[in-house]
Specification:
heterodimer; A: mainly alpha; MetI-like fold; two-stranded antiparallel ribbon; 71% helix; B: mainly alpha; 13 helices; flat
């Protein structure tokens, strides 16, 4: 772009970049370096700095020796195994609905998006009440048709299921928009050709729709695995990791170690292990995508 | 011959029509079920918030409260430990300031990356992009200690400063600003406009759709955020609505009617904001949402 005065140009560039650079340098880059450093320290924020000691790899050793990592990782995986197939199906169906035109489309779209704009705190508080054993309406409704439902969040084997159900309720409207955008991008001549050939609806679904939106499915897959490894708000408010630690996930541990018992070094080590896991999972997915993601349109 | 053939055609046509009708009915059934599943929790929240303490424990459950009462709404504004008014004000204050800071700093940086040329620009932008990979998990502990060193723990300033770090916003605004034709800027420069004027008079107005999307996204994110304020804010008069609600959730066991009233109040403002601006931003949400 044409700029009359070199000095003026540099002043402008610096001024315009300054605010965001401050944020980036301090709260991202410096933070990352600091976090890596902390993970080698015995660092308690409440104690004076002089008592902070360099302890090498001890935090990581402790992490891998105590079985907690595997247990909480398993809880994260449980969450992912239930959440991902469910959210894919529900948001795909919702995307299909939004891809049609019908009376009241505008209001339906707002309704679909309402759980998304609701905060996790409000959603969790409401659902905690809905799922509460005896007086929640879900168990009441199930009792009417003769099903003895579990007490959900206070039952160790059902608490995670409850959290997943709420997360699916809350997130579906959000991911549906991605499916909607992908569905809108499909050329209608594919379907016309399929109709002439007499293709059944499931043939259209599996041979046209799904392959053509596979990049979106892949994107949501990657994104949801990254987010699923870091699930926190829902767990913290609905169960706090309980009952008897059955929903204790990795982020919840990091929060407890870092901000409840102030073992900053140990918590930082946890966060790097979590980062490593996320990174690994993402790379594996990018390698596997060649087998099923279709980028031809 | 002819009547027979037309009968066959007719039959074919009829089955097609029947098929279309069943498909249509099926569609509306699914639509209805989905809507009910989404709305019921909200209705249950509303219904509970108007019930007395005994009424919430009656079986069978009643969707329409027998003696509806405003009591819970009065009680939630007169808590002994927290001021709900104060928390609401804090939430608004933080949402507005954080959004302003975040959107402004991101747009300013985006302007440089989109329209200024200098050596190393693209490398610097790559650094910005790369930092989007770093999860909050890694940065939340050091950010707490950094704020601690800066003496900014338990202050709004701390949270607002952290809002400066909005690389995703830079990315979004850059995409949008690259679409503004250079001729506009050159024309303005000829007329003697300064860079600052170009930014405010040309760049921002011409990228309004993205700008609005970002404003709404940031406002929503800030209003709804839980983890960051939970870590940074500690004193009672600095709590946000979400923090108070989460605390009440633990404290008011057996008084869900009051918590539900609190939940209604925390949802209403953001719902009003969303419904009133949604027609401007629906296009943007799907592109803009990923980081939300």
């Amino acid at each position: 772009m044409y700029v009359p005065n070199k000095k003026q140009k540099w002043v402008t560039i610096c001024l315009f970049l300054l605010p965001s650079m401050i944020g980036l340098l301090i709260f991202c880059l410096l933070a990352m370096v600091a976090s890596a450093g902390y993970s080698f320290l015995d660092y308690d924020i409440l104690k004076p700095l002089t008592e902070t000691k360099f302890i090498g790899l001890d935090n990581y050793k402790r992490l891998f020796q105590e079985g907690e990592l595997l247990t909480t990782l398993w809880h994260n995986i449980q969450y992912l195994i239930m959440y991902i197939p469910l959210i894919m199906v529900t948001s795909f169906v919702m995307g299909l609905i939004l891809n049609k035109s019908f009376k009241g489309y505008g209001i339906v779209r707002i309704i679909f998006y309402t759980p998304v704009i609701t905060s996790w705190v409000a959603a969790a508080v409401v659902w905690k009440w809905i799922l509460s054993g005896k007086f929640g309406f879900i168990n009441q409704a199930l009792a009417v048709i003769g099903i003895q439902a579990p007490t959900w969040l206070s039952d160790p084997s059902w608490a995670m299921v409850g959290i997943v159900l709420v997360a699916v309720w809350k997130d579906t409207g959000y991911y549906a928009l991605f499916f909607l955008a992908a569905l809108k991008g499909i050329d209608s001549t594919y379907y016309e050709a399929a109709n002439i050939d007499g293709a059944k609806w499931y043939q259209r679904l599996f041979n046209i729709t799904l392959p053509l939106i596979s990049p979106t499915i892949f994107l949501l897959f990657v994104y949801n695995i990254i987010a699923g490894f870091q699930v926190f708000d829902s767990v913290q408010i609905m169960t706090g990791g309980g009952p008897v630690g059955s929903t204790s996930v990795m982020m919840e541990r990091i929060y407890k170690y870092g901000f409840r018992s102030y073992q900053m070094g140990y918590a930082a080590a946890w966060s790097w292990v979590l980062f490593g896991l996320i990174f690994l999972a993402t790379i594996v997915q990018f390698i596997l995508q060649k087998r099923w993601v279709n980028y031809d349109t | 011959m002819i009547p027979k053939e037309s009968a066959v055609l007719n039959k074919k046509y009829l089955t097609k029509e029947v098929q279309a009708m069943t498909l249509n009915t099926l569609f509306y059934i699914i639509l209805f079920v989905v809507i009910v599943m989404i709305i019921l929790p909200f209705l249950w929240m509303l219904s509970t918030s108007f019930k007395g303490t005994e009424a919430i424990r009656t079986i069978p459950i009643k969707w329409v409260p027998k003696d509806p009462t405003w009591d819970n709404y009065i009680k939630i504004f007169n808590l002994s430990s927290y001021s709900f008014w104060r928390a609401g004000f804090n939430s608004f204050y933080l949402a507005i300031t954080c959004t302003a800071v975040s959107v402004m700093s991101a747009s300013m940086a985006a302007y440089v990356f989109a329209k200024m040329e200098f050596k190393g620009r693209d490398k610097l932008f790559l650094v910005y992009l790369a930092t989007m990979m770093i999860p909050v998990t890694v940065t939340m502990i050091p950010n707490y200690t950094i704020l601690n060193h800066l003496n900014l723990l338990d202050t709004f300033t701390g949270l607002i400063l952290m809002a400066l770090n909005n690389t995703f916003g830079v990315f979004l605004m850059r995409q949008s600003m690259m679409g503004v034709h250079n001729a506009y800027l050159e024309g303005a420069l000829m007329d003697g406009a300064s860079m600052r004027q170009i930014f405010f008079r040309i760049m921002l107005p011409m990228t309004k759709p993205t700008l609005f999307t970002m404003i709404l996204m940031n406002f929503m994110g800030s209003w709804n955020s839980y983890l960051q304020p939970l870590l940074v804010l500690s004193s009672n008069d600095k709590q946000t609505l979400q923090l108070v609600l989460a605390t009440l959730n633990g404290q008011l066991k057996g008084k869900e009617n009051i918590t539900m009233a609190g939940a209604v109040i925390s949802i209403l403002p953001i719902l009003v904001v969303y419904v009133s601006v949604q027609k401007y931003i629906n296009q943007g949400l799907e592109i803009g949402g990923l980081k939300g």
